[in-house]
Amino acid sequence: MADSRNGNARVPTGGPPRAGNTYSIDVTNFISRTKALYAHWTKHSADLWGSADAIAVATPPASDDLRYLKSSALNIWLLGYEFPDTIMVFTSKQIHFLCSKSKASLLEVVKKPAHAELKLDVVMHVKVNKADDGTGQMDAIFRAIRDISLGDGKDSQVVGHIAREVPEGKFLETWTERLKNADFQFVDITGGLSDLFAVKDDTEIINVKKAAYLAFSVMKNVVVPKLENVIDEEKDVTHSLLMDLTEKAILEPTKANVKLRAENVDICYPPIFQSGGKFDLKPSAASNDELLTYDPASIIICAVGARYNSYCSNVARTYLIDANSLQSKAYEVLLKAHEAAINALRPGRKLNTVYQAALSVVEKEAPELVDKLTKSAGTGIGLEFRESGLNINAKNDKILRPKMAFNVSLGFQNLECESESRSKNKKFSLLLADTVIVKDQNPELLTKCSKSVKDVAYSFKEDEEEEKPRKKARTSGPENYMTKTALRSDDHAVSKEELRKQHQAELARQKNEETARRLAGDTSGAGDSRSASKTSADLVAYKNVNDVPQPRDLMIQIDQKNEALLLPIYGSMVPFHVSTIRTVSSQQDSNRNNYIRIIFNVPGTPFSPHDSNTLKNQGAIYLKEVSFRSKDSRHSSEVVQAIKTLRRQVNARESERIERATLVTQEKLQLAGNKFKPLRLSDLWIRPQFSGRKKIPGTLEAHANGFRYSTTRPGERVDVLFANIKHAFFQPAEKEMITILHFHLHNHIMVANKKTKDVQFFVEVMDVVQSLGGGRRSAYDPDEIDEEQRERDRKNKINMDFNHFANRVNDMWQLPQFASLDLEFDQPLRELGFHGVPHKASTFIIPTSSCLVELTETPFFVVSLSEIEIVNLERVGFGQKNFDMAIIFKDFKKDVLRVDSIPTSSLEGIKEWLDTTDIKYYESKLNLNWRQILKTITDDPQSFVDDGGWEFLNLDGSDSESGGSEESDKGYEPSDVEVESESEDEASESESLVESEDEEDEDSEQESEEEKGLTWDELEREATNADREHGDESDSEEERKRRKMKAFGKSRPGTSGGGGRSSMKNIPPSKRKHR
């Protein structure tokens, strides 16, 4: 169980303790434990302490690694804290401390009590400053050791030390070297310290119990519910992610419903999650980045270790998913053996009898599994996770005593099930571990997390009766919500909305045809939504002349729908498919004339793509190049950008048509060498970050076939090959603090032992500075103005450097050898951005020409538009401040991606953007359970196609066709879906296709249906006319004032009112009933 972090209970190495952060030594505890140390030393001097005349223990400097050292354990055991860079020497009459001045001031409190109660003199040897190597103080300690009288047969004094601990740092290295040269004899005292720590006092027992309570609470309240949720909802979760979630729960005990102070707890080791046939039962095991496996006959091993006040505990469980007979039998045997080992922990017995008790159960119940049993049944536990000398194995004959603590860990390693067809499940292991205290009678189990078969074995067999999802609820109210566009009075806005509806209807037809082909197994339907992937023979812009749109003016036009470019040539609009275009560019001459230059793919020219039409039309004449002149520079730029965007989309569709069946083996990076100087960008930071305490910036270089990022440290290097880049982004710092180069990859690469598909390089354009002064500086302060100008200059310089690097790389990617990669740095379109919650925090999400991205905060959010099937806008309606976006991918096996809590003010812009990128979108009032919907579609694709495909989401169409009848509200209804009764419990409701967040009144729905199509102003006028007919208009103003006063709690008695009819005016028109 791998070490990860340093322990707690360490005294700072700086100055003396300050108020609010006071460290104090428990003098009573020091006296009692020092007495126990000397008593044990005296009693077991010959057999455990090597007849040592003095004991020398040196504690190493502070470290970020979690280390279990005897020296640190002795510090904490005696003093309550770890004292780094401190030397303790115990003699029969003195205790010597060699340390810094701040630590010596803490230790002063033990001088008088030690002399008064133990007759021991505590001698402080203080280093003057950090430059002091302490040699003078060391010599004084050596003289004190030499003053000890020699025993019989000794030529020199015997000094006991911890032999296995290697000195760290210059101070301890100097101490060790001088100690060896001081003509003493040396013995190892590790055994003596282990035996001393083995039996716990009452305070230590309480600490172990609290640590064990935290460990089993995390297992019970966090790990098990999380696993059940992942398996039940069939989520893709990695072992490392589960490890991170569990570690956070340990460090924040409230997440596990445990009331312990967070500053007193820590992990014993990073939590361990293993599945998928790769198991390691050694204490040094670690969670990998592979997905949790929970298909039939899967085994999941979970281990959690927690510390409280530096005292350790451990619990491990094995969970069986649809276990086969061998797995069930092996677990039952292991459970009996584990219980036998725990029951054998009785005072007076030898440790080897505990292991023998477990072994006897296996030999009796399943002799064929004896060789698979672990060679140890656990170790002692306390200040160290594995207390040396207390290993429970067949050879250890140490005697058990009351108040000993053990981690009883037993398992079967590398069992094989030949009948299992899945390769991942052929090999499996089992593990159980608990923290146990040895008592006078029966042992006390501290980690009371159930391990019985009924609680760890899960069954998800297909033949079990499953609850059927309910029909998708529909409301009878109008789904045609009024937006800003609908409320505008100008005809242009209305016509724009109508055009968008028509375009969306055409997209729906194409999308349903494409989805039907794909579900039927037709590969031609697996391409982009705009059309099936075309061969060279299919490159036809329009099948007949009537399909060509009528031009408004003789200007260059782009037909997104047919992927065509209409060029005015000799007074006629001539169509060209965008695939025939090789390059397009725009230039400006000295007379401010703008020239658009379009170069076509012509057979026979170098690097032209192969075209089978060349053989069919050998006598054809090809247009190679055409240029147009324009006075409007803005229009020229828009045309060029639109052509490039359309061309990039078509190329992206073609590249995505063929799925990568297996991971592509990465080629080696070809360094630039002497051929050319590599493009370089310096002082960059990388995400994901390299591991290590201190982060340093690095340099990004563009070589012959990829990028290399490296720092000055050896081993900190990342290679990103051009062939592995799927999308490249350049995001300058505008409202952010960083300028970014981001690469989204085809295949995962390793960065700092993390598997990732996103690699980012960035620079902070300004320093994060917090003013410590209380007053605010004037806006006209010259220093403030100069500082702001420097920040602007720095930001502009960094943006220009990044832009220059991106442009030069773009030029490199235009070379013939990289033409097939179709790479270009894409820049996010900030004006189209919107706020949303793709993960856990609200971020600013920005579209690009080919993706939807969020690159500033982690985890990154990158979605390729060519992979999107449809988008469903959920929780859209009056009174809603936010709505959600559900992105459904063409690969129905992928989880639906959600962006939650998008402000309603962004709705119109998002719909316009989706429409212009040819992505079909739908709207709904409710959140849908997409996992169940996609499962229903894939289970019965024919029924999905027959019922109109995605049109079950089209609430607009169903309402307009049927006038809100009950039949139209059914929408898409799979054959195996039935209406559930109202009395079903909450669990079944969570599985329904629709998860309603707002309940609406039936009356309001019917009334809004009657008023469908009227604007707010029109409804207001109708209500006013109705009031006039009943003679209530005269007092409406007075009534309005009265209601206003009443709303603020200031109504006055005697105010005249007109009764209930006037009060209707304060109700929105959609809620009124007209007589």
UniProtKB/TrEMBL annotation:
Record-given protein name: FACT complex subunit
PANTHER family per the UniProt record, alphabetical: CDC68 RELATED (PTHR13980), FACT COMPLEX SUBUNIT SPT16 (PTHR13980:SF18)
Biased composition (Low complexity): 956-965
Biased composition (Basic and acidic residues): 487-520, 1021-1033
InterPro entries named among the record's database cross-references: Creatin/AminoP/Spt16_N, Creatinase/aminopeptidase-like, FACT-SPT16_Nlobe, Fact-SPT16_PH, FACT_SPT16_C, FACT_SPT16_M, Pept_M24, PH-like_dom_sf
Span of domain FACT complex subunit SPT16 N-terminal lobe: 25-193
Domain FACT complex subunit SPT16 middle as annotated: residue spans: 556-709
Ranges of Acidic residues composition bias in the record: 975-1010
UniProt keywords, alphabetically: Chromosome, Coiled coil, DNA damage, DNA repair, DNA replication, Nucleus, Transcription, Transcription regulation
GO molecular function: nucleosome binding
Organism placement in taxonomy: Eukaryota, Viridiplantae, Streptophyta, Embryophyta, Tracheophyta
One Gene Ontology term from the biological process aspect of the record: DNA replication
Pfam families linked: FACT-Spt16_Nlob, Peptidase_M24, PH_SPT16, Rttp106-like_middle, SPT16, SPT16_C
Function: Component of the FACT complex, a general chromatin factor that acts to reorganize nucleosomes. The FACT complex is involved in multiple processes that require DNA as a template such as mRNA elongation, DNA replication and DNA repair. During transcription elongation the FACT complex acts as a histone chaperone that both destabilizes and restores nucleosomal structure.
Organism: Eutrema salsugineum (Saltwater cress)
Residues covered by region (Disordered): 1-20, 459-534, 948-1075
Entry's localization field: Nucleus; Chromosome
Quaternary data: Component of the FACT complex, a stable heterodimer of SPT16 and SSRP.
GO CC annotation terms, alphabetical: FACT complex
Family affiliation: Belongs to the peptidase M24 family. SPT16 subfamily.
Sequence ranges assigned to domain Histone chaperone RTT106/FACT complex subunit SPT16-like middle in this UniProt record: 834-924
